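Appendix B: complex inputs.
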Amino acid sequence: AQSVSQHNHHVILSEAASLELGCNYSYGGTVNLFWYVQYPGQHLQLLLKYFSGDPLVKGIKGFEAEFIKSKFSFNLRKPSVQWSDTAEYFCAVNARNNNDMRFGAGTRLTVKP
Amino acid sequence: EAGVAQSPRYKIIEKRQSVAFWCNPISGHATLYWYQQILGQGPKLLIQFQNNGVVDDSQLPKDRFSAERLKGVDSTLKIQPAKLEDSAVYLCASSPLIARLEQFFGPGTRLTVL
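Resulting structure:
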């Protein structure tokens, strides 16, 4: 079964700083990739997803992620974070030949105003 | 569009007691998932339904956990008897088809086992 690693447990940035959150997965087959976000007091919601095609995908609120197949990575980026981006971010992987969605442990992002 | 509904939002029980959680998915969504999210970890899939049939329950501790989805709509997840390590948030999600598409999550039920 596939597994997901998120390298950073807690990231603290100042507003306007650039963000990159790492995500690596282990699975030899074809995958679908997701980033979910959970704002304080809210439920999980989708930021962006990759199924096929252009490996650079754009999501809501200025976020983007790049799928690098050779590195089994799907890192999340944002050029300039805002205080409202404070949240927990989860990377998730779903193998195409099964329905098992695996989540990483999450990265807590704190943006200081 | 109404989201995924879950109840209760919070539950506190003592170990060895029983507890049940309820989920109402988004209307028309054929696939329903139950996840367990322990503090500091990502969600872990417990069981997945396609309509009222089980697609995957390989990570469900079947000696104490059970789930059903009668009529292919609402679902209940039960724990009997509960253990201390069951303290977690239980998330329900639904999607129109198998997980290739986005899963929509409910607010979760926070369970504390004392």
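The radius of gyration of chain A is 13 Å.
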